[in-house]
Write a structure and sequence with these properties.
Two copies of one chain form a homodimer. Chain A has ten helices and five strands. The first copy, chain A, is α/β, with parallel strands linked by helices. Chain A binds a DNA duplex (30 and 30 nucleotides) through helix 7 and helix 9.
DNA sequence: TTCAAATACCGGATTTTTCCGGTGTTTATT
DNA sequence: AATAAACACCGGAAAAATCCGGTATTTGAA
């Protein structure tokens, strides 16, 4: 019996191509394809037989990688989820692993290695590629394991601060005193561990707290 | 006779999958695959019969999309180049079209539409997808058509400025006076049309002058 | 050889940002 | 009823960034 695979990726061309490729592997078949997390969950609900492994991209519209992984872990605990992403930054990897992924594969993996990885995940429950194994330990040592929690006002301020505006301009846009703005700035500097507005803006982008 | 395709993309899994897909199209065959621009050029030089169309990703290590397109336009004028990217921001599209691409396709295109696009490029020399046609005119109206040309020192400074460092720290890293640094800052503010360091950093990222 | 562009630098003023240590209200939770 | 967290705000000072108008050398192209 073939190993059943599900895929969620918003790049349609990649999704269909990859599906083709996997189908060409001897022991695998693709049972569900989706362009985002929500579509995946809907299609899953309609299936009688669930996939063994679901490949999930980190960045997707409507419902992103981490959210999708969490949902699957909750509703289909028997299904193994594997992150498949081109991003290899700490935050992407961490957010997926934290959500409950069994492996983190990069899109520039070679097809043969990819097949091997899928087989290993099916058999052992995990896969130790260069990236996930080596970096994972380092990541666990680091402080940024705790998720950064921002309040609503902080989020609004942060988005506005990622711009060419002065704090004075931001204050008037938010109908607040400059001193209040300064409070949010202070608080965000601490949470993001930076010393300057530029650093804050860049960290915010890296951590996907704002989008460019 | 089949239409010969070349592909350059640094995501190996995508590259091989796409190659598979194209091979499955009735009228197409893949004659060259490469993980970056330089590899593509090397492999091209070794061929007797050149591809009709080469698909090129925007972001690649070693030699990126625009540079590769320029080289091909120069050395193989009979070969049509097509950008194939997931990025649909103005700067990516512009830089590829300016380099000489005949079309700009997004990776979230549907395989059938993709096949149609390739056929159209082969027959008419171009393809009008939603993105390229609609946005292209708008792009041409805009000011940012002029490429932003930075000097070497400006580039080095800009990369360092996209950080949590102070100018003083940057100055010492570059073994320059703070006043010299201030000169580069001034010049970059003009070229990027911003009023603050944060604005500068964000513009730099948007315009792909620095990578996060 | 002359000209433009890139490089490196300075004084001095102004604005913005950053930092410090505070106050007080509202709102939800225990 | 007590506590915590989020929200909104202040004075004052120090540091950093921004702006202005300069100079001088080098280097390659016209």
């Amino acid at each position: 019996m073939k190993i059943r695979i599900g895929i969620a990726d918003d790049q349609q061309l990649f999704l269909r191509s990859l599906s083709n490729l996997i189908t060409s592997f001897k022991d695998f078949e693709v049972v569900v394809e989706a362009l985002n997390g929500l579509e995946l969950l809907k299609k899953l609900a309609a299936l009688n037989v669930y996939p063994d492994i679901i490949l999930i991209d980190v960045q997707m519209p409507v419902m992103d990688g981490p959210a999708t992984v969490k949902e699957i872990a909750l509703n289909y605990p028997a299904v193994t989820t594997v992150a498949l992403s081109m991003k290899e930054d700490d935050y992407s990897i961490l957010s997926m692993l934290r959500a409950g992924c069994s492996a983190y594969l990069l899109k520039d993996i070679h097809p043969q290695e990819f097949e091997r990885a899928l087989t290993e995940v099916k058999n052992t429950g995990y896969y130790n590629g260069d990236v996930s194994s080596v970096n994972y330990r380092r990541l666990l040592r680091r402080q940024d394991i705790e998720e950064i929690k921002l309040t609503e006002r902080e989020k609004t301020f942060l988005k506005l601060a990622c711009s060419d505006f002065t704090y004075k301009e931001i204050a008037s846009k938010m109908f607040l005193s400059e001193k209040t703005i300064d409070g949010y700035r202070e608080s965000l500097f601490q949470k993001l561990n930076v010393k300057s507005r530029t650093g804050m803006a860049l960290e915010a982008i890296k951590k996907n707290l704002v989008t460019l």
